[in-house]
Every structure is written in C-alpha cells, then in structure tokens.
Specification:
The complex is a heterodimer. Chain A is mainly alpha-helical. In chain A, 48% of the residues lie in helices and 11% in strands. By secondary structure, chain B is an all-alpha fold. Classes of the chains: A mainly alpha, B mainly alpha.
Chain lengths: 97, 190
C-alpha cells in the first residue's frame, strides 16, 4: 500500500505454494565460479516479513529509529506509526517462538 | 478510491492527525462550538452532552467545555493505562478533543432553532411539529452524537494502540465515568 515502487520487485518466496509451510533454503550458488552449496538453511527472520514490513524497518533504521521523522515521511500520525511498529514487533515475536 | 479515503478521514482522521496538532485544531473548534453554542443557548454540559437550557455566561460556557475536555482526557488516560502502557497522553488528549468537532455543526444548527417554552410544549406537544428548526436540530443531533462517539472510539484506538474486547470495555467504561464526573463537576462548580 505505502511502497508501490517495491511491489515490482520479485519477492523471495517464504511459504510453500502447496501446503503453506515455511520454506527453507536448499541451494546457494556463486554467480562467479558456479560453485553450489547445498543444505537446509533457515530463512533470515527479516525475510519472513512482508515487503511492506521490511520497507518500514529499513525506513525506521534510516531515520535513526525516530518515529517522529517516520510519521513526517509517511504523512501519518505518530501513534499510527507506533502502532505499525508494534504490529511488526508482534509478528517478529511470533516468528521467534 | 478518493471518496473512500475521504469517508475514512471523516470517521478516523487520527491516522493522519494526532498529538499537539490535533489538540490545537480540537481546541479551536471547541472554542468556536462554545461561542456559537452560547449565542444559540446550547450548552455542552457533560463529556458527550449538548442541551438547550437557561442562559449561561461566556465564562460558564467555556468552563463547561474545559471540564468536559479535562474529564475525558484524564479519565480516558487512566482507562488507557489499564489496557496498555505504550502510549502518549498528548495523543490521547489531542485526538479526544478533536473528536468533539461535530458539535460545531450542532452549535451552528442551534442558531436557527427557537425552543418552545416548556409550559407551552406541555400544553400542546404538537407545537414541535410546527417548529421546523427544532425538528432539524433533533434529526441532526442523533447522528452528530453517534459521529462524536465513533470519532472518540477511533481516537482511543489509534492513540492507545490497544486491541480486543478489553480495549472496548475500557473505552465504554471510561466514557461513562467521564460523563458522570463531568456532570458532577459542572453541577458543583458552575
């Protein structure tokens, strides 16, 4: 909604399209020498968040963690931005369990 | 889409406005409502009340508004502390004050209303139907009060960030207590 320019990017799939379970990383490849590393790796926690949430976190860091600056940038009220942050915190806590 | 957004801001402008900004707008609108209401004989004699009544002075009219805003701010803040601790008083006070904005419409409508004498009305209740201004006022007052309560609910929800049934119960209880306390204070102090 807020970050339309990001929507055109190809998103990293995090859930199985068949059974909706969380996906794991099976293979990583070096584009330079074509070496492939196989295994079963967890996706980083931030990658599990929605694109909007990831963009929010990036903006939050860029604004030195200032909700006031974020509110000005997003043209939203301070408590609305704080509530968005609280939602992300809840989602992260859910993934951490 | 634009109309949908406009409609959203009518009942929840607090996604965009809160804190000091909302408080300043809210106080300006409240002062205008109080001043116009005084001309129209309309008193804001409770946290969510508006009644026609005896002539009041400007001091009394503005004192009532001050008591209303202070009671809502203080009681809702304490109610907010019961459900969450992660919110700012200024957001709650500002948004709750701005939520009273629809009362300005009631005050303006009040200017065109002539209230029939109680004795006359008791003798002939049909008098109401020959007073279109009063009928329009009554027809407007219900939606206006519902609008104020809806705005207050959204103000409370956005500024506290609370959720669930606990939040709804605290809002209803807080508003009820604010109404009772404001009524008591107005009857004692004014």
């Amino acid at each position: 909604m807020l970050y339309l320019q990001q929507k055109n990017r190809i998103m990293l799939p995090v859930y199985c399209p068949s059974c909706h379970a969380q996906l794991k990383v099976k293979c990583l490849k070096c584009e330079s020498c074509q070496t492939e590393v196989n295994g079963s790796y967890d996706l980083p926690l931030l990658a599990l968040l929605s694109l909007d949430d990831q963009q929010f976190i990036l903006q939050f860091v860029k604004n030195s963690g200032s909700l006031k600056n974020m509110a000005n940038e997003l043209k939203l009220s301070y408590p609305t931005v704080r509530n968005l942050l609280n939602e992300i915190i809840l989602t992260i806590e859910k993934y951490e369990k | 889409m634009k109309n949908k957004n406009a409609l959203r801001y009518i009942y929840n402008p607090f996604e965009k406005i809160a804190g000091w900004q909302a408080l300043i707008y809210g106080l300006i609108i409240a002062c205008l409502s109080g001043w116009i209401g005084k001309q129209a004989g309309l008193m804001f004699d409770g946290a969510i009340d508006a009644h026609f009544g005896n002539e009041v002075s400007y001091y009394q009219a503005f004192m009532m508004l001050f008591i209303d805003i202070a009671c809502v701010g203080a009681v809702m803040y304490l109610a907010g502390l019961l459900v969450t601790r992660n919110f700012r008083f200024i957001d709650l006070l500002g948004t709750m004050t701005l939520a009273r904005a629809p009362y300005l419409l009631l005050s303006l409508t009040g200017l065109f209303v002539t209230i029939p004498e109680t004795a006359e009305l008791l003798a002939n209740p049909a008098l109401i139907f020959s007073n279109p201004g009063f009928l329009i006022f009554i027809a407007l007052s219900f939606p206006a009060i519902i609008w104020v309560i809806a705005l207050m609910y959204n103000a409370w929800k956005v500024s506290t960030g609370a959720k669930g049934s606990k939040m709804i119960i605290a809002f209803i209880a807080g508003l009820f207590v604010a109404e009772v306390i404001s009524k008591i204070l107005i009857s004692i102090l004014i």
